[in-house]
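2024-03-11 09:14:02 INFO queue: dequeued item Transposase family protein, len=76
2024-03-11 09:14:02 INFO validating residues
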Amino acid sequence: MSKPILGIDVSKLDLTISLLIDKNYHHTKVNNNQQGFKELVKWLKKHKITQVAACMEATGKYVSHLLIFCTAITMK
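2024-03-11 09:14:37 INFO prediction written
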């Protein structure tokens, strides 16, 4: 099994998320706020993801809170 890859398209109001696990894609959309970040973690746990390589579109100031959240969490 290859390492999962998470792609995040960032906008002012929401995050459009794609998760690649092996050759299968999974998609979701969450709000670009603390509640949405928590929903993202819950969604990743649902897919049994504990470690992921992530990339995101750096859309000015809209990415900063997500970046801070991602660097602060340790998923268990």
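2024-03-11 09:14:37 INFO annotate: The first helix runs from residue 34 to 46.
2024-03-11 09:14:38 INFO item closed
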